[in-house]
Design a protein that fits this description.
Helix content is 81%, strand content 0%. It has 343 residues and is an all-alpha fold. It is globular, with a radius of gyration of 22 Å.
Length: 343
């Protein structure tokens, strides 16, 4: 495509950077109400399926592709003004009266820093480069089992969700024989479910203290896995509407709580690094694997097999969430106790 693909690459890069920064800012500014904050922030994605999609179609019908892109760019430009008005939260570290305990990763980093580098030629320079790379990108988080479990859950969620977004309309129209209007109704039902969950999950999660974020996350992932397993067998209009509605609820809760759990484990200081590495790993995985549902359709002529495989992959995420819950129960990180006694 030559230079025609560069604006898209720049746009995706900008969206990815703002995505990480936004999650980091929310985690830094909120403690007890962090679940509600992430839920409200997720309303933007939910509104896409309810209002933005019809609005874009209206723009396309009236102004065409170029006019639509100009209007979307003008709408997005308002985000720059919002970002300019933001300011960092007040530093209350000097008023706490205590020093936060080190996480397992920080203790490991401190021990490594105490090891004197070799005086041989070249080794000192290599050690400095390695130390700079490690400190800048916080790559030592990959040595944390908790981070690897969270990373696996996030990658599976993103992979299956993106596959659903890309192939769902064609799946319902080609494999199930519904019209495009029916498919749009299913997507709207998903958007309604996601919107309701984004609004309700924060107050509900704070009201039900006996259930931890890990249990909520595991339950929502299980519902998503059940949806992928059951949906290929649904052939009637209203059962599909109901299933997509509950799918939107469960997926919204899972995406909100994965951020809450990440903050619980790493605290607000390392939240940005963790979210950034999760986003990078998820993008690379999606780039490599998102073509497989389409490939399965090309080989079998049916999306049912692909959605059934998505159910199996999602079940692995449920197992990883259970492992994360077990690890945090028996080997709780010190950062969780010091940074977030409650969510």
């Amino acid at each position: 495509m030559g230079d025609n693909g560069r604006p898209g690459v720049v746009c995706r890069s900008a969206v990815g950077i703002s995505f990480v920064i936004t999650k980091h800012l929310i985690g830094s500014c909120f403690n007890k109400s962090v679940t509600t904050a992430y839920g409200v922030a997720g309303l933007g994605s939910s509104a896409t399926f309810l209002a933005v999609v019809p609005l874009i179609q209206l723009f396309l019908d009236i102004y065409g592709w170029r006019g639509t892109m100009l209007l979307l760019g003008a709408l997005s430009l308002h985000l720059a003004l919002v970002g300019a008005l933001m300011k960092p939260p007040a530093d209350s570290g000097s008023q706490d009266g205590y020093e936060a305990a080190l996480t397992d990763e920080e203790q490991l980093e401190t021990e490594v820093d105490k090891v004197a580098p070799s005086n041989r030629f070249g080794c000192s320079c290599f050690a400095k480069v390695f130390s700079l790379t490690r400190d800048t990108f916080q790559l030592e988080v990959f040595s944390s089992i908790s981070f690897l479990l969270v990373l696996f859950v996030f990658i599976v969620m993103e992979l299956t969700y993106c596959s659903w977004l890309i192939y769902y309309v064609q799946y319902t129209t080609v494999s199930k024989g519904f019209t495009l209007v029916d498919a749009s109704h299913f997507v709207v039902a998903y958007g309604i479910g996601r919107t309701i969950a984004s609004i309700v999950i924060g107050p509900l999660f704070q009201a039900v203290h006996v259930v931890s974020a890990y249990v909520w996350l595991t339950g929502s992932l299980l519902i998503v896995a059940i949806y992928y397993a059951v949906d290929p067998w649904l052939t009637s209009y209203w059962p599909i509407v109901a299933s997509t509605f509950f799918y939107g609820n469960a997926l919204s809760i899972a995406f909100i709580l994965i951020d809450v759990v990440t903050k619980k484990i790493f605290g607000k200081e390392r939240l940005g690094h963790a979210v950034g590495l999760m986003g990078l790993s998820s993008s690379v995985t999606s780039l490599l694997l998102l073509c497989f549902p389409g490939l399965i359709y090309d080989l079998t002529g049916d999306y049912t097999v692909a959605f059934s495989l998505m159910a199996g992959v999602q079940s692995l995420a449920v197992a990883a969430a259970l492992g994360l819950r077990w690890r945090q129960k028996h080997h709780p990180s010190s950062s969780e106790a010091s940074h977030l006694g409650t969510t």
